[in-house]
Write a structure and sequence with these properties.
The complex is a heterodimer of chains A (341) and B (190). With 341 residues, chain A is an alpha/beta fold. In chain A, helix 10 links the parallel strand 7 and strand 8. Chain A contains 13 helices and eight strands. In chain A, the strands form two sheets. Chain A has a four-stranded parallel sheet with strand order 2-1-3-4, with helices on one face. Chain A has a four-stranded parallel sheet with strand order 6-5-7-8, sandwiched between helices. With 190 residues, chain B is an all-alpha fold. Helix content of chain B is 57%, strand content 0%. Chain B contains eleven helices and no strands. Chain B is globular, with a radius of gyration of 20 Å. Chain B starts with 5 loop residues before the first helix and ends in a 7-residue tail after the last helix. The chains are: A alpha/beta (341), B mainly alpha (190). The interface between A and B is large, with 57 and 62 residues.
């Protein structure tokens, strides 16, 4: 599968580990990447606060560039914020011919909204790609319990993102299973981490981060997987200051590493810590993966599998009894014959 | 809340309400105050008046009070409210409209939110991309939150997360023109 990648402003900064680990996996899983030419900032939260026009124009310019170079090749945005804004411009242009023309006028370029915009999880939902990843997993994570954290921008508003369920998505779970991880069910999968306020109101944001970390741990997770550089930085970088505040209140620290889901895939596919960008994690993250790889795999059967196993075992026992009876019936007959002789 | 004259509120507020309704596409009369929005809102606990309350105040015409609230600026745009509202009321859009209404009149209830937006857009206008370091520095200086995140900067720096690869679009001048014209209110439609 081929995609036109929109890096966004975070790709070479807060999203570096995401970019690195995604590239590692992509090269080995048949994902081909073009780069959107001359892309510009999607506008983040500021563009769409200023006006609907700016909220559409900034992303649309990059989409128009991608279209001019690659036609209807899907545009890939790893950053969930960029994904949300690009989808906004795309859907507005597709929904209304008038609006599409207005957007063209605002950016001074033709834009026909031909290409879809997909997020970082999408490529791995293609059966071919998932199969290729699975085949290259040489160091599975042996049931590492992972809480998949989507954040808010990938799944809401549904009218724009059209990706997975707004309340209980499952796509990232299927992807981390490819690496041998065991996703846990938990309640804060899509609850906003507050990253859009990380400059203007960090005080309001911290309780959101704390609840997410605490809930993941309560649900039995050993690690959190993310798909957005802003969410990831928020959860990973701020864990330390949250624990400092907890210590001051006499509460135990929340100790849980935070990974981009592609870091889990890359590591399971044999990437070194450097190749998977693990050194960039704030909460130490290398040891847990190394340890998970040494675990014995415990295979838990589903109820159906258990029933089938019971039936098979019962059949085997019955067959063994029958064979024994047949052998016992045959043996006295032989003994009688032998006795007669 | 005390005593208020609903008829007076109604008369005084109708222009403001019309503008906010037109901007957001929201008809506040459709809300029957079930509270699913506030129940799911991640910032409801920090809000002076939660999102259900904001709509209620607009319903009775108390726009003046709404324009002083932190809630519209606290809104993260996460969309849980809209996802759960049985009437599909676009609360994020409503909050955005209230913030825009305030900024147009220079009465932003949260100066940090407006400052962040302007500094961010200044950067994008100038460079075509966002520059986190410049953004943080200018923001801290302008708002007086001088030591915000100062402890985190060295940690980010040592992990190579601050300095990007120096990318700037060659079409920077185009981006500049687009951003400038829209901010100046020229040629746009909304």
């Amino acid at each position: 599968m081929r995609y036109a990648n929109f890096p966004g402003c975070s790709a070479s900064t807060t999203g570096k580990a995401y970019t690195e680990s995604f590239s590692f996996v992509a090269r080995r899983a048949g994902i081909d990447i073009d780069e959107v030419p001359d892309w510009n900032c999607c506008g983040a939260s500021a563009g769409r606060l200023q006006s609907d026009d700016l909220g559409d124009a900034l992303p649309a310019r990059s989409l128009a560039n991608a279209e001019a170079a690659f036609g209807d090749e899907p545009v890939l945005a790893l950053c969930a914020g960029c994904y949300s804004n690009l989808r906004r411009a795309l859907v507005h242009a597709r929904e209304s011919e008038d609006r599409r023309r207005q957007i063209e006028a605002l950016i001074g370029q033709p834009y026909e909204a031909k290409a879809d915009v997909v997020c970082g999880i999408d490529p791995f939902l293609e059966p071919e790609t998932a199969h290729a990843v699975k085949a290259r997993v040489t160091q599975p994570l042996n049931g590492l319990k992972v809480a998949c954290y989507y954040g808010c921008a990938l799944v809401r508003p549904r009218a724009l993102t059209d990706f997975d369920d707004e309340e209980n998505p499952q796509s990232m779970e299927t992807v981390v299973k490819l690496a041998g991880a065991d996703p846990v069910e938990w309640g804060r999968k899509t609850e906003c981490c507050g990253a859009s306020h990380h400059v203007s109101n960090p005080a309001a944001m911290k309780p959101l981060v704390e609840r997410i970390l605490a809930d993941a741990i309560d649900a039995g997770a050993e690690a959190i997987a993310t798909a957005c550089p802003l969410c990831n930085m928020n959860l990973d970088m701020r864990e330390a200051e949250i624990n400092k505040a907890r210590a001051a209140r006499g509460e135990a620290p929340l100790d849980i590493p935070v990974y981009f889901f592609t870091q889990l895939l890359a590591s399971a596919m044999g990437a070194s810590d450097a190749e998977a960008g693990i050194a960039r994690n704030f909460v130490p993250a290398g040891a847990l993966l190394a340890e998970a790889k040494t675990r014995e795999v415990v295979v838990e059967l589903t109820p159906e599998e258990k029933k089938a196993a019971r039936i098979a075992a019962a059949k085997k026992q019955a067959a063994a009894r029958k064979a024994a009876q047949a052998a016992a019936a045959a043996a006295p007959a032989e003994a009688k014959e032998a006795a007669h002789e | 809340m005390g005593f208020c004259n609903l008829s007076e509120l109604d008369r005084a507020a109708s222009d403001a309400l019309s503008e906010i309704a037109a901007e957001s596409g929201v008809d506040v009369k459709e809300c029957y105050q079930c509270g699913k929005c506030a129940a799911g809102c991640p910032v409801a606990a920090s809000a002076d008046v939660d999102c259900r309350g904001v709509i209620r105040l607009l319903q009775i015409g108390d726009v003046d009070r709404v324009l002083t609230l932190q809630m519209p600026w606290l809104c993260l745009g996460c969309g849980v409210c809209l996802a759960r509202c049985p009437q599909s009321i676009d609360l994020p859009a409503l909050n955005t409209a209230i913030c825009r209404y305030e900024m147009k009149r220079g009465i932003a209830a949260e100066r940090e939110g407006e400052a962040f937006m302007n500094i961010f857009l200044d950067n994008v206008e100038a460079k075509g991309v966002s520059d986190e370091t410049m953004l943080a520095m200018r923001y801290n200086l302008q708002t007086g939150h001088l030591f915000q995140d100062v402890a985190n900067s060295p940690r980010m720096l040592s992990r190579g997360l601050l300095s990007g690869n120096g990318y700037k679009p060659a079409g920077g001048p185009d981006v500049k023109r687009i951003v400038h014209d829209i901010r100046a209110g020229e040629g746009g439609t909304k």
